[in-house]
Amino acid sequence: MIIRGEDGAKRSLFGLFGMDPIPRPSEWGSGIAYSGERITFQAAAGLPAFLRAVRLISETAAGLPFCLYRGYGDNRTPMPNAAQLDVFRRPNPDAPSAFAVWSYVFASLIQGNGYLFKVKTGSRVKALYPVNPLFVTPKYDGTVPQFDLRDRQYGPVVRTVTKSEIIHIPGILLTDPYVGVSVVEAHRNALGTEMGRQRFEGRYIANDGTPGVVLKHPGAPTLEQRREVRGSFEARHAGANNAGRVGMIWGGWDMTTTPVSLQDAQFIEAKRYGVQEIGRMLGIPSGLLNDPDAPSRWTPEQEDMRFIQHGVQPWMERLEAALSADADLFPEPDWSVEFDTDGFLRADIQTRWNAYRLGRQGGWITANEIRAKEGLPSVDGGDQIQETPVGGAKNDSSSAGGGAGANESA
After folding, report:
1. Using alpha carbons only, what angle is made at residue 284 by residues 282 and 287, rounded to the nearest 5 degrees?
2. Per-residue pLDDT tens for 272-306?
3. End-to-end Cα distance, the chain
4. What are the residues whose beta carbons fall under 8 Å from the beta carbon of 82, sequence distance 6 or more?
5. Whole-angstrom distance, CA of residue 236 vs CA of residue 245
6. What is the pTM of this model?
């Protein structure tokens, strides 16, 4: 409710009595940070560093190919022609791409939990549809896990399903052994500080990017005179578009400006620290978030390795485990799903060729294996191990076995 105060300014009734305004439906369930900001995933995505970190995780992981294996340990065998790969490569006919589906699932995991609704023909899964995590309430308090589906957040339950119809991928487990916690909710106070700083920055610029102005008068102007002078001054000088305009005041008025405080002078440093905080929240090296203060001792390959191992790998393992454990996708327990990160972690061409040369001369990799890693077709005779590695000793069974045979072959 908006009312007009004694000075004519419009104010919220909630603000007059120190009450928090009623949140919009999109903010229902949101927590309030120490800064007073309401924190939702959509609001946090308004912070450039946070959205960049979410995109780095979700889009990097979604762009990696799936690999299927069967067996355990040394007996594990790749299954490149398995039917399940068709579903992973095209989860459903309505999605624009598999990349869109999997990036949405990873973004949902950052919100706490990801869900995939299964469309089956008989017992075979034919399609996977991602579900908005805000529309699902997981229940693990009974003998069989159940999931209440709604058509909107906090709407009525329209359907209750089990794991035979939906795949649940929990995110970070902190307070519940089965249900994930939203990164935004866990870090709402730190994100609220950044959002409050962003709000302050916007209001600062709306006031033409200068400190506040104080108009003084030696007498006692009437309320109407005060309104007229203030309104005229704000109309001509408020906003960035009016910065630098010549100001004129008469009638005994004097103008002073409020000096910039020490906190304002360190505003840029605080924003840089906020980028580092967001990097810590999601395990992203701050250099990938364009932090100018990030350490430069890492090579690009080392930076990518740190990003995959500490920023993306935990999220991929959650999805890998959930897909591998689904009894409809894999009736037998010896199947496993993995993302192939070799292409992402690929070294530069000179480093790769030096490594191939050493491996080829060392006698433990063939020409066709090298060609396969580079996406090239195999050639005749390319499966032979080089017989004379560096050092001059022939790489054959007699030299490997030692004894008289080894002396004769040498």
Report:
1. 145
2. 888 888 989 998 888 888 887 777 777 777 788 88
3. 95
4. 68
5. 8
6. 0.72
